Automatic annotation (TrEMBL):
The record marks F270 as: Important for dimerization. This is Diaminopimelate epimerase. It comes from Methylophaga lonarensis MPL. Catalyzes the stereoinversion of LL-2,6-diaminopimelate (L,L-DAP) to meso-diaminopimelate (meso-DAP), a precursor of L-lysine and an essential component of the bacterial peptidoglycan. The record marks H161, E210 as: Could be important to modulate the pK values of the two catalytic cysteine residues. Belongs to the diaminopimelate epimerase family. Signal peptide: none annotated. It is found in: Cytoplasm. It catalyses: (2S,6S)-2,6-diaminopimelate = meso-2,6-diaminopimelate. Its main location: cytoplasm.
Amino acid sequence: MLKFSKMHGLGNDFIVIDAIHQSVELSKQQIQMLADRHWGIGCDQLLLVQPAESAEADFRYRIFNADGGEVAQCGNGARCFARFVHDKGLTDKTVIAVETASGLIYPELQSDGQVRVDMGPPRFEPAAIPFVANELSNTYMLTLPSGPHVEISALSMGNPHAVVRVENISAAPVAEWGPQIEAHERFPERVNAGFMQVVDHDHIRLRVYERGVGETQACGTGACAAVVSGIRRGLLARDVQVALPGGCLHISWPDEASNVMMTGPAQHVFDGEIEWPIPTQS
Ligand SMILES: N[C@H](CCC[C@H](N)C(=O)O)C(=O)O
């Protein structure tokens, strides 16, 4: 049997597995099955808790999208990761050094139950995103297969993000444009597509069509990317409330040389066991 916890950050939901005390080898198909909301447990992402590989970290954090693809960063997941390792007694620290494929992050469990995460610096160089562009710019024009020419910001928060500004988030073409942006040929590793409405200089509304998942209730790295892109476009202050379908995150980017700070909730839903290895569909 395989033990797991079901958790979420503002409705962006996760299967969290202690791979320190359990031997867990997951194929892409098995991850797809576990993530499936009919054949398995159901989640947006599956998170593995592993021993750290470097002396400066407490744990290693691996992230898999529902399509089975491994990715390098997940903001909502980082908050749930910290809540999990603390509440399961794997650490008594409240500031935890976590290795990810895109570098170290530092979730902090706060006394009010919120979790604050230093998400590291944004990256803008096209090659670091990766994004195909002739020059570095705050915005780019993207031609979608269905015809529209869309203005985007492109950046990395350890994972790739494209951010589109819209006037009305409720009417944003997330279902129509999201998949086209996600799979656009100029993003060789695909991309998370954010749709941002600027409500005020310190308040945005955001919906994200996530790479490897589809539209989610919330996206932590997407919130970081949207705020950073809004600041660089001269639209936002340095501390911003981000209203997502699942609730609100606080994002802060003190200056161009700083890391991005994200604060929000992390919710445990239930613990479970599943037959293992999971029978794969024949
Ligand atoms: N779909 C993302 C990974 C999860 C990001 C999101 N759940 C977050 O909270 O940051 C990607 O493929 O890069």
